[in-house]
Each structure stands twice: as structure tokens, then as C-alpha cells.
Design a protein that fits this description.
This protein is mainly alpha-helical. It has helices at residues 14-28, 30-39, 42-52, 64-89.
């Protein structure tokens, strides 16, 4: 129950505010925009490959640790297939895409 003599107080944490400001500066910097631009396309393709090429449709286990094990095996298989393709095409130690420059 609200008491007129003892109202609730809202306090801010200056250390948290400083971290929030520093993170915001990093996000809107040229390097932050460049990293977000180059990163935005990567995850959707991975799940597309797992579902389409590996024919992975659903997890057959219910417990969290079992799901993690299956996901780790899928990640290892995906990375091995990616490494194999890079070796076959002679693209070892090269980036897949050129880093985009932000105007």
C-alpha cells in the first residue's frame, strides 16, 4: 500500500550509466557499424544449411544437456564441411567476404 509519508525512491547507478554510454558509443562508431553490417547475414545461412543440406528438422531429445550435445555435433559437422569446402577451393586463411567499408 502506498504511504504518502514514505514514497518509493528510484536510484540510478552511475557505473551502469557509464557502461551503457560506452556501449552505445561503440555501437554507433564506424567500426561498430562495420562489424554489425558484416555479421548480420551469417546466422540465417547456418540454420538454412543445417535444415536443408543436413536434413536436420528437430531435436529428438528433451533434456537440455542432450540437446546441447546434438547441437555441438551439428556445429562440428557444419564447421568440418565448411573447412573441407575451403580446402577444396583453395581459400584457406582468406575471408569469405571482403569487409565492407562504411561510408
Amino acid at each position: 500500500m502506498w504511504n504518502a509519508y514514505n514514497p518509493k525512491q528510484i536510484e540510478t547507478n552511475p557505473a551502469y550509466d557509464a557502461l551503457l554510454t560506452a556501449n552505445q558509443k561503440r555501437l554507433i562508431s564506424a567500426k561498430g557499424i562495420q562489424l554489425r553490417t558484416n555479421r548480420s547475414i551469417q546466422m540465417e545461412g547456418t540454420f538454412g544449411v543445417l535444415k536443408g543440406d543436413f536434413q536436420f528438422k528437430q531435436f529428438n531429445h528433451r533434456r537440455k544437456d542432450n540437446v546441447h550435445k546434438i547441437l555441438y555435433i551439428l556445429a562440428i559437422g557444419f564447421n568440418l564441411a565448411k573447412l573441407h569446402n575451403r580446402i577444396q577451393s583453395g581459400r584457406i586463411n582468406k575471408t569469405l567476404f571482403e569487409i565492407k567499408e562504411v561510408a
